[in-house]
Amino acid sequence: MQIVAKTFFGFEDVLAQELKELGAKKIKLGNRAVYYEGDRELLYKSNVWLRTAVSILLPIESFKFRDERDLIKKFNQIRFSTYFSVNKTFAVKGAVNSDMFNHSQYPMLLLKDAIADHFRDNLGKRPNVDKARPNVVFDLHIRDKDCTVSLNTSGAPLFQRGYRSRIGEAPLNEAVAAGLILRSGWDKKSDLYDIFCGSGTIPIEAALIASGIPALIERNTFAFKHLKDFDQELWLRIKDSLPRKPLKNPTFKIVGSDDDTEMIRVARENAQGLPIGNIIKFEAKDFKIQNVKNANTDYGVVITNPPYGERLEVNEIEKLYKEIGDVFKHNFTGYNCWLISSNFDALKAIELKPNKKVKVFNGKLECDFRMYEIFKGKYKAFKKERITKPRGRVVKRN
Question: For 2-152, which CATH class?
Fold first, then answer.
């Protein structure tokens, strides 16, 4: 079947690699989406395993339409009762980009009415609409005069993992956090630090990745379970086969720190119910107080999401980013230090030349995800050492 995995801008290629490893065929990148082919088993696995996906769509109808009347006619030709029962609740969501409609929500209302009318005309009863927590979700995508109606097999967005009990003031989306980690090239064998960890999203996602545990291991609600063709036996077989054991005796550690002691308490609560063992260490301390001299590896990664400055004065945010640059230089020698921010002026205050820059979005905010390769001494000598002593080697300590 044709399947579409939706994601955030900047993570399409990361998601495509995830799909390749999951066994998807005929993978094609789109805008905030990846198209691929697979069977029902892959559809279910996509919902559980894909770390950078927002939702998994199953297109049921694609067509061109001439005008509003033609769109209504084509909606009315879809046999919606084929896909779900009248006792299930439903909702219509999606995106409309067409000059034909003054309001983007209007075509969604037309689709909602077509679904309700189909059940009324064929079964004498309408299914109820539930915008908050629907059993079945239809995704409508219109661009100009091209229309696609899909079943959203995920329901609630897949970044709602199910493990977070509480969040901070400006939480990082879980799918974005996983995308940043996978984008960084972290080898899953060396130490990883997040010096502005907040409620712990980056450390927790990193621990799940390193342990080979599915992103949605704690979530039980998926919209595909409410469809008529739901294969419960297949789903239970997939669910029973999911790895749940933490790594034994890991040779690396994941450290999350924050100066907000309450957030550290929340981070520990969020990680508590997951099968990730003792990989993560959460510390309540200022980001300027870091010591990696006793690290278990001779190379590590920093991935962090500092404040962007919405609640800080200009001089305060520039001072903060200057201090971040100093911490990178003096406390993380030998590390690749990655940072995401939407404050491009403040990024200049880091006073380090980024080795890589990737444009990504954190919610609606356009951000840079920048990497600073921190080394000691002359760059030529550092490069020569890299050739003779590859990064990622585990150091044996007495």
Answer: alpha beta
